[in-house]
Amino acid sequence: MRFSRFALGVVCAACGAGPLGGCGLPRDGVAPAGSADGPTAATDAGPVTDSSVAGERIVPPGPTMDASGEDGTKDGGLDAVPLSDGFADGPPPTIVAGGSSLCATAGLLFCDGFENGPGAWKPVTTGGSVALDGSRAFRGAHSLHARTNAVPGQNLPQLYAHFDQTFAQALPRPLFVRMFVYLPSPVPPSVGAFIDVVENAAPFPGVQLDFRPPTGLLGGMGYNGLDTDWSSSTDLLPADSSACIEMEIDGPPSNIVHVFLSGAELPAMQHALPVDVPPLAVLRVGLGYYQAMSQPESDLWIDEIAADGARIGCTR
Q: I need a surface site. Which of 71, 82, 215, 223 has the fewest CB within 10 A?
């Protein structure tokens, strides 16, 4: 059963106007500035091959910033695939919230702390709004703020409020996408997606991470040809704090999805997609509900969204 379709409303590279299937959304997305030859790097340093230490701790700098995370420690996952974060051994580094955005010096393929406006991000909304504000920035002065409207009845509407970034060329495989996510309590009574990575071609298959009621358990989904659904029974997206979430999507032949919370892999969230992962070129971040239950307005903030071909971690 599909719990969410945040994938609806894919923004494509410039390929002419017209509806996307039955969604009625435009197919006029734009590539990031300077991306004519591929994904834009955040700095001139280019992609890096080293990363931080697993199991990172997030420590707030003071009473005005609440940012914390949890280590994934439970058993489970795919026995045939060893759990390996590829990071060096040693004590976990402290991840301090606040200060300036680290994207400019991160040396990653792509990183955006939303300090310079929306840029090439395209807002896509139905029953909601998406904007940049300073109320829940993990670093710097701004973060993405997605809000969906209240649902008064039981008609199960589709609601989404997100930013789309479309790249001129496919992102690398394996692909790592990292972000800091702030979900305020109480957890909404509907499955809410906060990150999608999508192919920029019909039928627009993609992979998604979401939170699930009533406690905010982490889940994932593949759709439009990657059809599968999975979730953890214990790993939560922490509420009322900025959680460092990283998703790894391996390409063929393994086609495994891995999820990291505060730098540590969550074994129960390791999942094999049913078919080969296609080239993925669209990042989508925000908040989306495929079938929203009766609920009040809901909010979610995302900051320091990054993508690379190697582990990113939480300290850059």
A: 82
| Residue 70 confidence class, pLDDT cut points 50, 70, 90 | very low
End-to-end CA distance of the chain: 37
Q: Provide the token pair at 115.
A: 């300090």
In a domain, 10, yes or no: no
Residue showing tokens 């709004």: 129
48 falls within a domain: no
pLDDT score of 83 more than 60:
no
* pTM across the whole model: 0.75
Domain residues for the domain of 68 are 57-308
